[in-house]
Design a protein that fits this description.
By secondary structure, the chain is of the alpha/beta class. The chain has 14 helices and ten strands. It folds into two domains: 158 residues, no CATH class; 240 residues, Alpha/Beta hydrolase fold, catalytic domain (Rossmann fold, 3-Layer(aba) Sandwich), CATH 3.40.50. The strands form two sheets. The protein has an eight-stranded mixed β-sheet with strand order 3-4-6-5-7-8-9-10, sandwiched between helices. Strand 3 and strand 4 form a beta hairpin. Helix 4 runs antiparallel to helix 5 and helix 7 crosses helix 14. The longest helix is centred in the middle third of the chain and has 30 residues. It is elongated, with a radius of gyration of 28 Å. About 2% of the residues have low confidence.
Length: 438
């Protein structure tokens, strides 16, 4: 009988029989890259949870639970880096990737697209999250499976960090941008600089179960029904949102805020909307949403104190293209607000492309058109105002250029449509719209 630590009858097993703890891994550049990717991939859906909660709590809880598990995995892997915890990190990232695949490519979450709230600033935010998850899964698996170098030299360590540093910066920047974009839909509208303005946010349409927001800005409550300008933001049908400040406005261009204040000062109500973005929502989703917004204004004119007979539309960039399509393309007015149509009294298309044909485009512009509309010739023609230019359109302001915008103006003028062209200030836009709707 051995005496161990003063206790008779107790025996200590030989050291070779003690269970070995998992060997720790170095917090090397591959592990750090995987952790950054997993962190970004978890924060993107987490940022969209508040907006998702307002639509349906079950989807919000699913997104929140998956994000929480992955955040725990990030902490565990970074705090206790072993092969076992690296496998746990890979499994958590794979689960988040599976949630994306089930909800977006496979479309099995049929109540509505749960990623749509995250795609209100950039139409590919969910693809960003999925890409980060792929990087995380691969990184964790590489760390877990490769044979650790017992004593890597300082040169070897420095070389690895130098090689992967640009990747880490890219992953970090992508995660931050995706999180900011996904979370922007949860914040409220920015108030006008006019001290006596009144702003209200409304749900104007719910395509496929996803509510779309409209901000209505006006100088003061009460008084007679005001003419209203529907503003459609730019951003290539891929970026932007309804707000005059923030990440969406940065991507859509700076024109809305000053133009809104100019119009409100002239007695207009200004309605700015979020519409569905590509590639999450393929064409003609943005135009369908814009038509629904016009019908909403007409159906709710009394409650909003606007004049349904004096609705104009303005837009910048591809928002101007949508505005032009509302003026020239008589499309189907089906869906919400039956009995209302989407005709408008005037159109201001600023810096708006009038044609999306791929011939003659530089590589960057061609790529942006393909992302927004795809490569189908019929879709490109359908999305081009030049296709429909003819008689019966309302007065047009075609300002500040835009691909084939001069040709659009010429065709409209030849068809007897009043057209104003040239470089436009906010004051000039206000004067044109005021004259057109009076």
């Amino acid at each position: 009988m051995k005496v161990v630590a003063g206790q008779r009858g107790a025996s200590r097993p030989p050291e070779e029989y003690l269970p070995a703890s998992p060997p720790p891994l170095r917090r090397g550049p591959v592990l750090v890259t995987a952790v950054l990717a997993a962190l970004g991939g978890a924060l993107v859906p987490a940022a969209a949870v508040p907006a998702l909660w307002r639509i349906w709590q079950l989807y919000a809880m699913a997104f929140g639970a998956v994000a929480a598990v992955e955040l725990v995995a990030v902490v565990v892997v970074l705090g206790w880096p072993t092969r076992r915890t690296a496998h746990f990190g890979a499994l958590a990232a794979a689960a988040a990737l599976a949630l994306w695949a089930v909800s977006r490519p496979l479309g099995l979450m049929t109540r509505f697209d749960p990623w749509q709230p995250a795609d209100t600033v950039a139409g590919f935010t969910d693809y960003v999250a999925a890409g980060l998850q792929v990087v995380a899964v691969l990184g964790f698996l590489v760390v877990a499976r490769r044979r650790a170098h017992p004593r890597p030299s300082a040169l070897r360590r420095a070389s690895a960090w130098i090689v992967l540093f640009p990747v880490q910066v890219t992953v970090l920047a992508t995660g931050v941008a995706g999180t900011v974009a996904a979370g922007d839909s949860s914040t409220g509208p920015v108030a006008s600089t006019l001290l006596d303005s009144v702003t209200g946010t409304f749900e104007y349409c719910r395509p496929d179960g996803v509510p779309l927001a409209m901000d209505v800005h006006r100088r003061s409550a009460g008084g007679p029904a005001a003419p209203v300008v529907l503003f459609l933001h730019g951003g290539g049908l891929v970026f932007g949102n309804r707000k005059p400040a923030g990440p969406g406005a940065l991507l859509a261009g700076p024109r809305f805020g000053p133009l809104r204040d100019e119009l409100v000062a002239r007695g207009f109500a200004v309605a700015s909307i979020d519409f569905r973005l590509a590639p999450a929502a393929p064409w003609p989703a943005p135009l369908t949403d814009a038509r629904c917004a016009v019908r909403f204004l007409k159906a709710n004119a009394a409650a909003l104190a606007v004049d349904p007979a004096r609705i104009a539309v303005a837009g910048t960039g591809t928002g101007g293209t949508l505005a032009a399509l509302l003026g020239v393309a008589r499309g189907p007015d089906t869906g919400q607000y039956p009995g209302q149509d989407s005709t408008v009294r005037a159109v201001a298309a600023l810096s708006a492309p009038a044609d999306f044909g791929l011939t003659g485009l530089d590589p960057l512009t061609r790529a942006s058109v393909l992302v927004a509309l795809g490569g189908s010739p019929s879709t490109l023609r359908e999305a081009s105002p030049l296709t429909y230019a003819g008689p019966g359109a309302p007065p047009f302001l075609v300002g500040d250029g835009g691909r084939k915008s001069a040709e659009l103006a010429d065709r409209l003028r030849a068809a007897g449509v009043p057209v104003t062209e040239g470089t436009t200030t906010d004051r000039a836009v206000g004067e044109f719209l005021a004259a057109a709707v009076r």
